């Protein structure tokens, strides 16, 4: 280091006797400036680090509390988060495996059912179709809910105004109405059927619970149709 300083002084003396001192003063001024800037940067970083915790939501953010507790959402998130990439849909092989697994589960659960008189069972696509000719047809599937392991997928009433011909399947003559009191009656019937499956005691015998709720309305509707035909 001393040798370097001597050589540097010799080079500076070629420019004049005052050149080494002027160069040294310039170097000291530059070092002082660098030290001052580094100290200022360190101070700014220190205060910035202290301010970071205060840049998030405050502990008593009333607006955020209303969003989360009242609406179940947080509206202050960036809109870009809503356009996140959706989950990858299952492949065809995964769907087939899931249907095969569901078919085995349904077959096992249906093996313990006590069928009401006249009820027919058949396997559907991911469901069990229960049919009582002349009255109703329901499609049931299973799910992992602890309180209600069964789900009502479809309900159709097969009430006809006259006896079915031998060897012929009854066609649905009562579908979901679109207006008036019939609409309310249909909605109430679907609600009653869904509620019958929601009870914990019906987990083992869901068809028996459904039959108890659907048999009477079907009989009443059949009698009403017969009276209408007789009076007509």
Summarize the structure in words.
- The chain is an alpha+beta fold.
- The protein is built from six helices and four strands, in the order ααααββββαα.
- The chain has a four-stranded antiparallel sheet.
- The N and C termini lie far apart (122 Å).
Break the fold down into its secondary structure elements and pairings:
Blueprint: H1 2-13, H2 19-51, H3 62-71, H4 92-110, E1 120-123, E2 128-132, E3 136-142, E4 150-157, H5 180-198, H6 206-231
Antiparallel strand pairs: 1-2, 2-3, 3-4
Helix pairs in contact: 5-6
In short:
The protein is 51% helix and 10% strand. By secondary structure, the chain is an alpha+beta fold.
Q: What features would you highlight for this structure?
A:
single chain; 232 residues; alpha+beta; four-stranded antiparallel sheet; 6 helices; 4 strands; 51% helix; 10% strand; rod-shaped
């Amino acid at each position: 280091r001393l040798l370097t300083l001597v050589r540097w002084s010799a080079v500076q003396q070629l420019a004049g006797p005052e050149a080494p001192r002027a160069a040294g003063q310039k170097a000291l001024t530059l070092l002082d400036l660098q030290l001052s800037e580094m100290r200022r940067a360190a101070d700014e970083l220190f205060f910035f680090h202290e301010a970071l915790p205060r840049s998030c939501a405050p502990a008593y953010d009333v607006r955020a509390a209303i969003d989360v507790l009242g609406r179940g959402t947080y509206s202050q998130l960036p809109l870009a988060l809503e356009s996140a990439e959706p989950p990858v849909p299952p492949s065809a092989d995964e769907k087939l495996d899931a249907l095969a697994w569901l078919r085995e589960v349904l077959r096992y659960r249906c093996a313990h059912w006590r069928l009401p008189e006249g009820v027919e069972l058949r396997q559907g696509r991911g469901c069990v179709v229960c049919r009582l000719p002349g009255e109703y047809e329901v499609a049931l599937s299973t799910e992992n809910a602890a309180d209600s392991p069964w789900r009502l997928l479809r309900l159709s009433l097969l009430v006809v105004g006259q006896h079915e011909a031998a060897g012929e399947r009854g066609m649905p003559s009562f579908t979901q109405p679109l207006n008036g009191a019939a609409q309310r009656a249909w909605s109430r019937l679907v609600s009653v059927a869904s509620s019958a499956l929601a009870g914990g005691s019906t987990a083992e015998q869901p068809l028996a619970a459904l039959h108890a709720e659907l048999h009477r309305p079907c009989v009443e509707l059949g009698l009403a149709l017969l009276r209408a035909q007789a009076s007509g």
